[in-house]
């Protein structure tokens, strides 16, 4: 699973890095550091390797197993990271979630992934990690909240339709979308994990104009597929939002979570 191109991933990486909850990021690093040298970390849905870079400089001394179903993104990650001998790139269908992915791992990471998966996927993942005493650090999962500095009458309708679209199957069964945080927290507690959570919203201003445009276009396309909004209103919302991207700001809610055994 990835389904994202490098243009989108490159646009969002600076915003992601600025948004990550700093305390959870540090706690995730410390959970690995205490294990000593030659520790292995598995990154699910790795894209171009943004999680490795986000946890730098400590992450450069770890052994990474990067997992994605897109061979081009895996090749791009290997080229960009430039960590020969410390990065293993593995093409795999994450929906199958094979136990072998987690061999010898101390920590599993995932960014912008768990709002796309089902409760059944999370149950399977937590079972595999729990029986191996592996921690989990996940960041930048969408929470369903979007707001703009300059309002449009269709804002709430578009967000509602977009959130409904986020609940559709993304390749892992019916997606949790904005409900993923409480579901993961509940399942993790039931599985015996210590749960630490924090917020990681995007704060996008004019300096993120192109990221705003890409996000707005994606929202509008998804909302249109639901048929919940009158087409003329949605068209006007998209036009106004694209025109205002360089002059207005928006906030997009995300959450991070660290699960420890």
TrEMBL record:
The molecular function terms of the Gene Ontology recorded here are: methyltransferase activity
**Coiled-coil regions listed in the entry:** none
Q: Fetch the InterPro entries from UniProt.
A: Methyltransf_25, SAM-dependent_MTases_sf
Q: Which UniProt keywords apply?
A: Methyltransferase, Transferase
Listed under GO biological process in this entry are: methylation
Q: Name one Pfam family in it.
A: Methyltransf_25
Q: What is this protein called?
A: SAM-dependent methyltransferase
Record the organism: Rhizobium soli
What are the leading ranks of the lineage?
A: Bacteria, Pseudomonadati, Pseudomonadota, Alphaproteobacteria, Hyphomicrobiales
